[in-house]
């Protein structure tokens, strides 16, 4: 698209919805001359693995985690590591 025939790229958008609406109807290829490089750091998140627990086991683990002031995830991870060290 010719630079003169395109809509102006707003300096700011009112909301994320406005950003989405703009880019739903425009191509970034028409705005390459206005783009600038940015650097971002992304820390990989932990992977999650679903594990099925019996209701009673879940309740006991949840109570034990709460008693130790730990999240359920942290408590279960510590419990598994401790058990693996014994194996």
For the biggest sheet, the summary is: none
What is the CA–CA distance across the termini?
A: 65 Å
Q: Indicate the low-confidence ranges by residue numbers.
A: none
Mean pLDDT value:
91
Q: What helical percentage do the residues reach? A: 40-55%
Helices and strands, in order, run as HHH
**Domain count:** 2
Number of strands: 0
How many helices? The count is 3
Strand fraction equals under 5%
| CA-based shape | elongated
Radius of gyration: 25 Å
Structure classification = mainly alpha
Q: Could you characterize what this model shows?
A:
There is one protein chain. This protein has 87 residues and is an all-alpha fold. It folds into two domains: 3-34, no CATH class; 41-87. The protein contains three helices and no strands. The protein has helices at 16-24, 55-67, 72-86. Helix 2 (55-67) packs across helix 3 (72-86). The radius of gyration is 25 Å and the shape is elongated.
What's the helix and strand layout?
Elements (H helix, E strand, L loop, with lengths): L15 H9 L30 H13 L4 H15 L1
Helix pairs in contact: 2-3
Give a brief rundown of this model:
The protein has 87 residues and is mainly α. The protein has three helices and no strands. The model has no long low-confidence stretch (mean pLDDT 91).
Features:
single chain; 87 residues; mainly alpha; 2 domains; elongated
